[in-house]
């Protein structure tokens, strides 16, 4: 049950056998049904989740009252609203399950124990924060610089295995267009691939 999260951590730092057992003790399994929430707008994010099985979407409500999907999480991904988690502020967004899911959760307090109780724990925290920062900057730059078609191509590159798991209206929201516009983008791309 914990092999995947240990493997994900070991992709970033090395863990000794005793450290693996310690880390395993800090993550607790929770099961969620499709449409359940890991986090709702206005709540404080109190845990980081690791998706053993399942799929989530991150979304916010825009000024027009519409849901705006801005990210997805799938198997072997960590999930969290990190700004809410780190400074204990109310979340401005939601994390909702799109499938029945199994998640290994670690609380803020236990994550601090991981940082201090594992030899390279602090390094793990720093490297994860650096990765999140780079990812966030790239997403912001894409919103300003890339066309919807470029954002759709990036979605396909980032999530090649999710095309059949995500309804197209969430994909269009993620790309930043209405569903009919996404259909036109897909048709244009398909016609180019014929030749």
UniProtKB/TrEMBL annotation:
Residue ranges of domain Cyclic nucleotide-binding in the record: 11-114
InterPro entries named among the record's database cross-references: cNMP-bd_dom, cNMP-bd_dom_sf, RmlC-like_jellyroll
Taxonomic superkingdom: Bacteria
Pfam families given in the database record: cNMP_binding (PF00027)
PROSITE patterns hit by this protein: CNMP_BINDING_3 (PS50042)
Protein name: Crp/Fnr family transcriptional regulator
UniProt source species: Chitinophaga fulva
Lineage, opening ranks: Bacteria, Pseudomonadati, Bacteroidota, Chitinophagia, Chitinophagales
């Amino acid at each position: 049950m914990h092999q995947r999260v240990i493997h994900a951590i070991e992709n970033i730092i090395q863990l000794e056998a005793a450290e693996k057992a310690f880390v395993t003790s800090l993550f607790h399994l929770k099961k969620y049904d499709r449409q359940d929430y890991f986090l709702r707008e206005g709540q404080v994010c109190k845990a980081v989740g690791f998706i053993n099985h399942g799929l989530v979407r991150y979304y916010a409500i825009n000024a027009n009252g519409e849901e705006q999907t801005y990210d997805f999480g799938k198997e072997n991904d960590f999930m969290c609203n990190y700004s809410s988690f780190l400074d204990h502020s109310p979340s401005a967004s939601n994390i909702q399950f799109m499938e029945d899911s199994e998640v290994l959760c670690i609380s803020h307090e236990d994550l601090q124990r991981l940082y201090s109780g594992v030899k390279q724990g602090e390094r793990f925290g720093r490297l994860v924060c650096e990765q999140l920062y780079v990812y966030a900057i790239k997403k912001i730059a894409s919103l300003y610089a890339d066309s919807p078609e470029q954002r759709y191509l990036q979605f396909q590159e980032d999530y090649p295995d999710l095309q059949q798991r995500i309804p197209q209206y969430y994909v269009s929201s993620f790309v930043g267009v209405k569903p009919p516009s996404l259909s036109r983008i897909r048709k244009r791309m398909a016609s180019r691939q014929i030749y």
